[in-house]
Write a structure and sequence with these properties.
The protein has 17 helices and seven strands. Strands 3-6-7 form a three-stranded antiparallel β-sheet. A two-stranded antiparallel ribbon has the order 1-2. Helix 6 (about 110-120) packs antiparallel against helix 7 (about 125-140). A hairpin with an 8-residue loop joins strand 6 and strand 7. The protein has about 425 residues and is mainly alpha-helical. The protein has helices at about 5-15, 25-30, 35-50, 60-65, 90-100, 110-120, 125-140, 185-190, 195-205, 215-235, 245-260, 275-280, 315-325, 350, 365-375, 380-385, 390-410, and strands at about 105-110, 145, 240, 280-285, 290, 335, 345. The longest helix has 21 residues, at about 390-410. The structure holds protoporphyrin IX containing FE and 2-acetamido-2-deoxy-beta-D-glucopyranose (NAG). Protoporphyrin IX containing FE binds near residues 89, 167, 175 and 181. Its cofactor is heme b. This is Heme haloperoxidase family profile domain-containing protein.
């Protein structure tokens, strides 16, 4: 398949960016709340991680993203068009479909996801490949998938059970709890409709329009707040092994890494209030915000990531680790047990059959190893053992992570024990 070469090339180039963490980082983080010197150690470790990246540079012509001509904004299910356009929990994909960078009906092939996310946002082709293939396996029909709900445009195929659900229907598999602006499924009954109070909370963290910048120093504490809200408000909160540990951080870091407007002055990007509102389809003034479903827009005169500075899997893992250093609770797989404030973490050693444990998860490359291997091991059993087309796509997924894994010398995680999930009502159905 065409995309495999692009993926392998991207990995060879960037896998060395993954960096090790200081020993016992989690204990550090746990102490840091009360201990200023531990706090400084964490900040230094995070700063060191970030400093290892070279400055991205800026080239206006290459980074400008057109919103004109064939890329003009057209909302879903607009008057005088066919109905049935799909939009869902991901504002980035919704905006791409509204501007013709993905098919307007919200259904795309793996290759279209890889190309579109690269062209509009500068997502690394390794990450685009991984996410695109994962979607085809988990919510699609091996070829393509819907960014919203099920649709006749994604008919089921042999080898997969049931009708493909689309991204909106992939709770605990792809979509998860404690999202930035989207609700917890078992709290609100849907996975994709913006909760204005959640958007407002984020917005209000940078109240001055002249200086507002929703970067990771804003988004990571916001994630901690949202995580705590799920514990306090959703009796069925479940921090799932893949949707919680790997996708939840992406839902936060993507906001700054992708939506930020890059410039010569700010090559890493600035994400101001207007750009944030545009990508999240929010209008009106603070205190009276309105969300219009499916109207996510790429702003006029907006610039993507620099060429050569793509947001790759290793880059993403660095951000994931930095957030976990500051808030080790993000690594707790587990959930509430049917009442609020009953969060219980699973025994990590038991979960991974002795390969990893929580105390050393942030040491060395353990976390990267767990995330990369766990992403595959936590797929439904029906897919894992499969042969034929499913098996072929699964090996594609494996090859996307193989380059990064080779560099890390990981202890091998080839079996997991899902028994402990039975105690979490919010995990029902997913495993
Ligand atoms: C093929 C690529 C992609 C896939 C498969 C994907 C998938 C997802 C999924 C499953 C969610 C729901 C996560 C949750 O429950 O919290 C999500 C949310 C999100 N995605 Fe994407 N995404 C992709 C690309 C992008 C891009 C390019 C952006 C660029 C800005 C983006 C930005 C976001 C944001 C900000 C959220 C959180 C929304 C919220 O709750 O406020 N994603 N995405
Ligand atoms: C992005 O930054 C450039 C350079 O500062 C600016 O001219 C442009 O208006 C900005 N775009 C948006 C959408 O804010």
């Amino acid at each position: 398949m065409r995309y495999s070469t692009a993926i392998v090339g991207a990995l060879a180039f960037c896998a060395s960016e993954v960096v090790a963490f200081p020993a016992a980082a989690i204990e550090f983080a746990a102490r840091a709340e009360h201990d200023a010197s531990a706090r400084r150690d964490i900040e230094a470790a995070v700063a060191k991680l970030q400093a290892q990246r070279r400055a991205p540079g800026f080239n206006a012509a290459e980074q400008y993203v057109s919103t004109h001509g064939e890329y003009e904004f057209v909302p879903p299910n607009a008057p005088n068009t066919r109905n049935g356009d799909q939009r869902g929990p991901c504002p980035g994909l919704n905006a791409m479909a509204n501007h013709g960078y993905l098919p307007h009906n919200g259904v795309a092939t793996i290759q279209q996801f890889i190309d579109g996310t690269y062209d509009v946002f500068g997502m690394g082709k390794d990450l685009g490949g991984f996410l695109g293939i994962y979607g085809a396996l988990i919510d699609g029909n091996l070829q393509k998938w819907s960014i919203g709900g099920p649709t006749p445009a994604v008919p089921s195929v042999l080898g997969l059970l049931g009708t493909p659900t689309g991204l909106s229907g992939s709770h605990n598999k792809y979509e998860g709890d404690a999202s930035p602006t989207r609700p917890d499924l078992y709290e609100y009954g849907n996975t994709y409709k913006v909760i204005i109070s959640q958007f407002q909370e984020l917005f209000s963290m940078q109240p001055d329009p002249a200086t507002a910048n929703y970067d990771l120093s804003v988004l990571t504490p916001f994630r901690a707040s949202r995580f705590q809200q799920s514990i306090e408000r959703n009796p069925n909160f479940f921090n799932a092994p893949f949707a919680g540990i790997a996708v939840q951080p992406a839902a936060y870091t993507f906001i700054y890494r992708f939506m930020g407007n890059k410039s010569a002055e700010f090559p890493e990007g600035v994400l101001n209030q207007e750009v944030l509102k545009s990508f999240f389809s929010i209008t009106g003034e603070s205190g009276n915000f309105v969300w219009t479903e499916g109207y996510e827009r790429i702003p006029e005169n907006w610039y993507k990531r620099a060429i050569g500075d793509e947001y790759t899997i290793p880059f993403f893992l660095t951000d994931l680790l930095a957030a976990a250093l500051e808030y080790p609770q993000f690594l707790n797989i587990g959930g509430n047990t049917g009442e609020v404030n009953t969060f219980t973490g699973v025994d990590f050693e038991d979960l991974t059959r002795g390969v990893f444990n929580l105390a050393t998860l942030a040491e060395g490359n353990n976390l990267a190893c767990f995330v990369l291997q766990g992403a595959i091991q936590f797929l439904p059993d029906s897919l894992l053992g499969a042969v034929g087309d499913v098996g072929a796509l699964l090996s594609q997924l494996n090859s996307v992570t193989a380059g990064a894994l080779n560099n890390l010398a990981c202890p091998k995680l080839d079996k997991i024990n899902k028994d402990q999930f039975a105690q979490f009502p919010g995990a029902k159905g997913a495993y």
